[in-house]
Sequence to fold (472 residues):
Amino acid sequence: MIQRVPKLVPVILSGGSGSRLWPLSRDLYPKQLISLLGTRSLLQDTVARAAFAAPDQAPVVVCNEDHRFMVAEQFRELALTPAAILLEPVGRNTAPAIAVAAHEIRRLHGDDTLMLVLPADHVIRDLDAFRAAVTTATTLAARGECVTFGIVPARAETGFGYLRAAREIEGTDGRSVEAFVEKPDQARAEAFVASGEYFWNSGMFVFPVGRYLKTLEDFEPEMAQAARSAHEQAARDLDFLRLDADAFAASPSNSVDYAVMERIDHAAMVPLDAGWDDVGSWSALWALGSQDGDGNVCLGDVICEGTRGSYVRAEHRLVATVGVEDMVVIETADAVLVAHKRAVQDVKRVVERLKQEKRDEHLVHTRVFRPWGSYESVAQGERYEVKRIRVKPGGAQSLQRHHHRAEHWVVVRGTAQVTRGDECFLVSENESTFIPLGEVHRIENPGKVDLEMIEVRSGSYVGEDDIVRIES
Fold:
């Protein structure tokens, strides 16, 4: 009798903020949405990897609602359509996120479906080895196993949790998991690697949908109920599924390791040796980057003299280093980080300071993304602000008015279709128009190239929250 192979649906978790990669990663523009190692973002690489390993099923994505338009845009750039984008109103760690994805997959495909859970911020270089490991994990999960992937350790790493593997599972390359181990000190990490019995805990899984939900109900009934209610009461919003905010917020916050994997009678593990990294720090990016003869990774407009073993990244201007070693230097439009490579795990302490001091540099870049395009602050002072605005082809801002400011628009590229009161007219390159205070207005891009314009705001208050939307 031929055993039916269950469907394998990727679940991509894209809810993190990546604070250790500040100042490039921000709360509202986190590391998984940034091109750190090539032309595609980490999320886009994960989507492509999921399509390679499970080519017949579109993924279910779980992301922060503040990132929704950027996530949708990155799928559009890949010419791919997700099965669903589930929006978390608040972060509750991985166990509830996987649970709401499981409910959506159950709705779409049924209880017998398998889900391949992938964080959106990992790097995997050997796709063939990854696909082979997924195939083994799928075989085990089809038997009802909860399966994780154990990374064959490349070094004695203190920044990862570990799995201790036990016996091999008959007829497969999988092994049972004897223990989950917290991040060790250096001596224990070296002993783990030398033993050959320990693997890095990857945070990737294959679960049978029905078993995951039942296990969560057994061990975390409050969490299971919150996830079920958040999904049942979710609202469709354009291309998104907006989870019920009150129900989801009621869930305890816990990782899938603590909530499920460490509490079941036995868990399975598939060893994975595929050039994996979770890109958790600037030193990890240095190790993954293309190093020159002095061991430097230089990106952007960078000059290094007498510099060794360093990661230097310039986003907006020339950065020069002289006579330094094992340093990380990151330049963005509004912040510069200088750190020793051995101290990069402490970058998150800077982010905590920014939050305590109620500053904005941990939240957003000077360039802010919107579903219609983006805007970037160029200059500001008392009673004025200058912004650079990009509207993508077919994009349109909401119909709106402002109580405290007027706006001057100068088109520098493309053509703008402007609604101003009862008027509707085109503004071409090197032309301008004026929006009086209080006037209803909208800007659209009817062309096939990006519309770029300079906006000069003037008035008693020029903040983003001075806006009354008439219609979206």
Observations:
- The radius of gyration is 25 Å.
- The chain has eleven helices and 30 strands.
- The mean pLDDT is 93.
- The first strand starts at residue 8 and ends at 14.
